[in-house]
Amino acid sequence: MLLSPLYSTDFDVVLAAQADTSQASSATVVPDSTNAIATLEDIPVQEFEGLDRIMLAEDRLPVVLAVVLVVWVGVLLMLARTDRRLSRLERDLDNSSS
Fold it and tell me: What are the residues whose beta carbons fall under 8 Å from the beta carbon of 54, sequence distance 6 or more?
């Protein structure tokens, strides 16, 4: 959740009021629409720490993602090549046994 627990919404107020057993059962709860809407300045921003800070500050993150992509492409090519070789071996075994 992006907002801290200190912020409350009208829905939370309604739920809290409904959970309160000291209120009369005939009272209706209306959300308070006079509350100010949270702005972007009110949302706490988490600073990057450790390795995240280093990777983003020196633009190394795209390099790491490119390396991971190359590794995955290599794994997929190796699997395709192995499958092709196995298919050829199975075909040769079927032809030699017939």
Answer: 60
